[in-house]
UniProtKB/TrEMBL annotation:
Keyword annotations of the record: Cell cycle, Cell division, Cell membrane, Membrane, Transmembrane, Transmembrane helix
Record-given protein name: Cell division protein FtsQ
Ranges that cross the membrane: 26-45
GO cellular component terms attached to this protein's record: plasma membrane
Main location: membrane
Location in the cell: Membrane
Organism, scientific name: Marihabitans asiaticum
GO biological process: cell division
InterPro entries associated with the record: FtsQ_DivIB, POTRA, POTRA_FtsQ_type, TAT_signal
Occurrences of domain POTRA (ranges): 49-117
Gene3D superfamilies on file: membrane protein fhac
A Pfam short name: POTRA_1
Length: 241
């Protein structure tokens, strides 16, 4: 074999290696594209990873069912394409919900974490209906009776409790320390928005919304004696009986 023949063989061998390397690179690129397309189909189009269930956390069973019902249209949608912000907004439109967060729970579920509104006051509208508000004055729901432990506000007179009366009652409750608020069973509002309430076995005449901090300080001292009636409407001259 001449030197020229050996050089030619090395050239052919090198060309073959380059061709094989290019072929492997092309095949790897094609395989990569196919993998990406396959994953994209699996995530965005395939029913394999579609929403099959909605898990709701943070509320009782009836409210869980109601929230799942509001998201029913998302079932069957590929999980990756679920608009979490839009679904969260939909849940937060419910009056019973203070805030919510919807997240993906792979492979086929949505998880809804809910912070519910806490009932603080029930307004008696008729014998069979009360309106339930949270401490911020948001109407939570209408029901036949007040939830257990939630005080009921009524009007002192023949008229129903109006919006101003509800605000006066809520302002009172917000002013009270938690240990006193837990004992409040009923609230009465008169036409001038003067408030009275029942704390345990004691009737408290609160009056208007003025000087709430001083009223709380005086009330906390006087409640220790467990009188039948306390009048702190003029907190610098309280009256007990």
């Amino acid at each position: 074999m001449t030197a020229r023949d050996g050089q030619h063989d090395r050239f052919v061998e090198r060309a073959a290696r380059i061709t094989a390397l290019r072929r492997r690179r092309v095949l790897a690129w094609v395989a990569g594209v196919a993998l990406v397309l396959g994953l994209a189909y699996l995530l965005l189009l395939s029913p394999v990873l579609a929403v099959r269930s909605v898990q709701v956390v943070g509320v009782d069973a009836p409210e869980q069912e109601a929230i799942r019902g509001s998201l029913e249209s998302s079932v069957g949608t590929p999980l990756a394409r679920s608009d979490l912000a839009e679904l969260t907004d939909r849940v937060e439109e419910r009056p019973t919900v203070e805030s919510a967060e919807v997240s993906r729970d792979w492979p086929s579920s949505l998880r809804v974490d809910v912070v519910p509104r806490v009932p603080a006051l029930a307004v008696q509208k008729s014998k069979r209906q009360v309106e339930i508000y949270d401490i911020d004055g948001n109407l939570v729901e209408r029901a036949r009776s007040a939830p257990k432990g939630v005080p009921t506000v009524t009007a002192d007179g023949t008229e129903d409790v109006g919006a101003d009366g509800v605000r006066a009652a809520l302002s009172l409750l917000e002013s009270l320390p938690e240990e006193v608020r837990r004992t409040v069973s009923s609230v009465t509002v008169d036409p001038a928005e003067r408030v009275s309430f029942r704390a345990g076995k004691t009737t408290v005449v609160w009056g208007d919304a003025s000087e709430p901090q001083l009223k709380v300080e005086v009330l906390s001292v006087l409640l220790e004696e467990k009188p039948q009636r306390i009048d702190v409407s003029t907190p610098r001259m309280p009256v007990t009986r």
